[in-house]
Amino acid sequence: MEVLIMQFRVQFKDVDLSQRIHYTALFRYFEACDHEFFRSIELPYKKLFKEDFSFPRVHVSCEYTGVIEYDDLLTIKTGIKKVGNSSFTYQFDVDNNGSPVAKGSMTIVCMDTASGKPMPLPDYIRHKLEENMI
Questions:
Q1: What is the pLDDT of residue 2?
Q2: Alpha carbon distance, N-terminus to C-terminus of the chain
Q3: What is the DSSP string of 47-64?
Q4: pTM above 0.85, yes or no
Q5: Measuring CA to CA, how many Å separate 125 from each of 48, 55, 61, 129?
Q6: If you ran DSSP here, which 8-state letter would residue 97 be given?
Q7: What share of the chain is helix, strand, coil (3-state, %, to 5)?
Q8: CATH number, span 4-131
Q9: Structural domain boundaries in the chain
């Protein structure tokens, strides 16, 4: 698996007064894709919570390139764009009925929970991420 594909129906709670998607909604969808991606590579976060490291998000971006409205069915393609020494970056491509409407990214750092400082990605995680780069 190189790309995870998930669909989301835009709910009423995800739109603003214009009946278009609220700017924060895609970030919640991206987070759901992140969690499912880790499940799909057999590293569910629930298991990783028991480790001595955590994964704070240090950069998240989204560029809207089209209209997203209430009840639209979005398809989000998620892949690993970059793996660094202590971090990795997702790429998200969002389509609405086959038309690109947004793109985003999320950078996550591996942090030692005791010191609060970045640490190298554990080899078993790095290997899984590199296997699934786009």
A1: 78
A2: 10
A3: HHTTSSEE--EEEEEEEE
A4: yes
A5: 10, 12, 24, 6
A6: T
A7: 25, 40, 35
A8: 3.10.129.10
A9: 4-131
